[in-house]
Specification:
Length: 106
């Protein structure tokens, strides 16, 4: 891939993590929805533009990073109750497992 395309992909995933994490920490739904929307748009674009199964391994690290962001934001959040924090930790763990599973797809 071109260096500019890789840089654009990194910036897009970083903005996804930023908005998702800020939405969880501050408790604003609009930021959290923006982070998820950016992530889903990137996944759809990557799946439509790449016709090989290599796209799954390309998506594995960002999906696992999304889970790590969720776990870190759940620990840092002051607005989330203990039950909400536990459910966010579960979502983060499942996202990390999904990233590992995507890396195993041939």
């Amino acid at each position: 891939m071109d260096k500019a395309l890789v840089a654009l992909l990194i910036i897009a995933w970083a903005s996804c993590y930023f908005f998702w994490g800020r939405g969880l920490i501050k408790g604003t739904k609009s930021d959290a929805v923006a982070g998820v929307a950016i992530a889903l748009a990137l996944v759809v674009v990557l799946l439509l533009t790449n016709r090989s199964s290599g796209v799954f391994s390309l998506l594995s690290l960002p999906v696992a990073g999304f889970g790590l962001t969720t776990i870190a934001a759940a620990k840092a959040s002051k607005t989330v109750s203990n039950d909400g924090r536990k459910s966010l930790m579960a979502i983060g763990a499942m996202s990390i497992l999904a990233g590992i599973a995507l890396s195993l797809v041939l």
